[in-house]
Amino acid sequence: MILDIIAGARPNFIKIAAVIHAINERNKKGYIIKYRLIHTGQHYDKNMSENFFTQLNIPKPQINLNAGGGTQAEQTGAIMLGYEKLLSTTFVPNICIVVGDVTSTMACAIVAKKALCKVAHIEAGIRSNDLSMPEEINRLVTDSITDYFFTTTLTASNNLNVQGVAAKNIFFVGNTMIDTLMNFRNKLSKPKFWNELKLEKKKFLLLTIHRPNNVDDKMRIKQYLQVILDNSKDYKIVFPVHPRTKQIIHTLNIESNRLFFVEPQGYLQFNYLAQHAFAVITDSGGVTEETTYMGVPCLTLRDNTERPETITIGTNELIGTTPESLMPYLQKLFDGQWKKGAIPEKWDGKAGERIVSKLLEINKNEKYFSCL
Ligand code: UDP
Questions:
Q1: What's the pLDDT tens digit per position in 52-63?
Q2: What is the C-alpha separation between 23 and 28, in angstroms, rounded?
Q3: 76 pLDDT exceeds 50?
Q4: Using an 8 Å Cβ cutoff, are 213 and 321 in contact?
Q5: pLDDT of 96 above 60
Q6: 153 in Cβ contact with 172 (< 8 Å)
Q7: 277 closest CA partner among 343, 351, 333, 354
Q8: Whose alpha carbon is nearest atom 2 of ligand 1?
Q9: 346 in helix, strand or coil?
Q10: pLDDT tens digit string along 203-238?
Q11: Which of 228, 237, 282, 356 fits as disulfide partner to 208, beta carbons 3.0 to 4.6 Å?
């Protein structure tokens, strides 16, 4: 069986790590699963890309399509051209694995499908039902042409059912992002600035903001920061700044001896911070899952989520996107009233292995390897 594994952006690297480790384990047991790891180049900063390969023990990608930068359309086009050329000048694998909901996910799924390659989507079926998010468009397009749907929750499986996907192609396997967290939990490590900033466990808040509707409005970020500073006692606030957010952060003129802007963190450092934070305030999707797993309170600066279990089962709350809506939640948090939460079903570290096992089973019955 030959697979293409596509990864383009930070959350992708974290999710594919679990699949690659599961393949390696199988190969140690005598299976022959070959794969090409293809980096589209969507995220190319060292802090957003290369460091993850080193920290998560992922082999260097065999191919880099170098399709970073540009508008949504430019990036989609560049990735599609790069991947199409690769398939036409080399070969079409048995299955193309795409993960998550970034531009690379959608672009490579389209190219693979048109080359008559089967497409497997990891983290299929999650839905925010908010078409103002580019990620939701990527999810819908990808799932409309996917052959094998690997889901993180039964809600996601059900969303696919409702959309008419045949039940035999939907596999509820659990969450590869949690596999990676479980795998690396005892390797999490303090960021270099921990001592310099005199951080203490459970005495600081961790903040991440990068979604376009939060970042594009400069005043909104400023007000978020002001509300957080005004309602967080003497707790420090650590804010790893995503490249998209960086452009505006220096124009905000907001200063406090409790607020620290830092570079995007390595995976091991970021999750060390998340694990030891009093709470995490974020608009990320993946971070809401990791905090749910670690039992850390999470306040999500969004109006909706494609990961409802982080709220119904986990430690997450949807705050909305107006700075004033944060206030009552911060009060609840500092009053010690935050829910404890639990871990959703099958977030148990075995999703990668379940996916590989299913792919082997599928591939046993189908012969569609072709060379162009
Ligand atoms: N993350 C990281 N360093 C950071 C911020 C986040 O390693 O400075 C990790 C985090 O642990 C999670 C993933 O990046 O696994 C989430 O990525 P992001 O928020 O960019 O994407 P989303 O999940 O919102 O699509």
A1: 999 999 999 999
A2: 9
A3: yes
A4: yes
A5: yes
A6: yes
A7: 333
A8: 267
A9: coil
A10: 999 999 999 889 888 899 999 999 999 999 999 999
A11: 282
Q: Domain spanning 187-334 has what CATH number?
A: 3.40.50.2000
Query: Phi/psi at 291 (nearest 5 deg)?
Result: -70, -35
Q: How many CB atoms lie within 10 A of CB 27?
A: 14
The CATH architecture assigned to 3-174+350-362 reads 3-Layer(aba) Sandwich (3.40)
Q: Which of 210, 242, 250, 276 is catalytic?
A: 210
State the Cα–Cα distance between residues 279 and 282, nearest whole angstrom.
10
Query: Relative to the CA of 242, which ligand 1 atom is closest?
Result: 8
Q: Is pLDDT at 67 greater than 70 in this prediction?
A: yes
Q: How far is CA 77 from CA 36, 61, 84, 89, 276, in A?
A: 21, 21, 10, 18, 41
- Rounded to two decimals, the ipTM of the complex is 0.98
Which of 287, 298, 305 for a ligand 1 pocket mutation test, highest count of atoms within 8 Å of Cβ? 287
Q: What is the pLDDT of residues 277-333, one digit of tens each?
A: 999 999 999 999 999 999 999 999 999 999 999 999 999 999 999 999 999 999 999
Helix, strand and coil in the chain, % to nearest 5: 45, 15, 40
284 lines ligand 1 (CB under 6 A): yes
Which regions of the chain carry the CATH code 3.40.50.2000?
Answer: 3-174+350-362, 187-334
User: Does ligand 1 lie within 6 Å of residue 10's CB atom?
Assistant: yes
Q: Is 121 a catalytic residue?
A: no
